[in-house]
Amino acid sequence: MADNNVAGTPNESGLPDDGAQPTSQQPEAQPNGQQTEGAQGADTASAAPGRPAGEADQAAGEHDRADVGVSAEGAAADADGEASREDKLLDELQRLAAEYKNYRQRTEAQQIRDRERAVGDAAKRLFPIFDDLDRAEKAGDLAEGTAFATIASKLRAVGEGLGIERFGAKGEPFDPNQHEAVLQQPSPDVDALVIGEVVEPGYKLGDTLLRAAKVVVLAPAE
Fold it and tell me: What is the pLDDT of residues 104-137, one digit of tens each?
């Protein structure tokens, strides 16, 4: 009867038969406690190395709040910077407006002075003519209705149209800023310096003196 050996059964020598198939080895099951600790360790490691999961979440929340605070501070700084730029622009516009206003005032004042100077220069050429008309009138050569009287009236109207004002009359107080005294005489009839006679009338344009009036001054008698 043939001798059949069962696989994995030791032969007579006590060793497994060479033709026998080895039995598959199953991994040893880990204890429940060790497997749970490994999973928790993996979770803890994934949450934050070297830090418990709760602390990692808290740190993340604090980081988010810090980012929000930084963003709010940045927005506030941007708003303050924008307001500061607007204030600077407003100050600059106000300064430019004031400079332009001053420029216009200076320009207008200069134009008035230039006009008065030009008119004054033209008027001064008329003063000798006006003086001749005054002397002719005193001599009776400008009787009303005559041709000379009409011409004299038109010439004087030209001066008035230019804004020329004639001043200086007998009995007016003497003003050294506008009157030139060619002679001074004592008089018991006055208690201050007054004009006793006008030799040549004065002329002015606005506040500009074109020619001082030449007068005889009466002074109080001592």
Answer: 999 999 998 888 888 888 889 999 999 999 999 9
Residue 163 CA to residue 155 CA, distance in Å, equals 13
Q: Return the C-alpha torsion angle 180, 121, 157, 146, nearest 10.
A: 80
Q: Which two tokens stand for residue 174?
A: 């003497």
Distances (CA, A) of 11 to 23, 24, 25, 106: 16, 20, 22, 132
Task: Give the tokens for residue 158.
Answer: 């030209």
202-205 vs 208-211, strand pairing mode? antiparallel
d(CA 142, CA 154): 13
Using CA atoms of 209, 211, 214, 219 in order, give the dihedral in degrees to the nearest 10: 10
Q: Exposed (0-12), middle (13-18) or buried (19+): which is 184, by Cβ within 10 Å?
A: middle
Query: Which residue bears the tokens 């026998």?
Result: 20
Q: Which of 13-17, 53-57, 199-203 has the lowest mean pLDDT?
A: 13-17
Q: What radius of gyration, in Å, describes the C-alpha atoms of the chain?
A: 60
Query: How far apart, in whole angstroms, are the C-alpha atoms of residue 184 and residue 219?
Result: 7
**Helices marked H in the chain:** 32-47, 53-124, 127-138, 147-161
Distance CA 182, CA 213 (A): 10
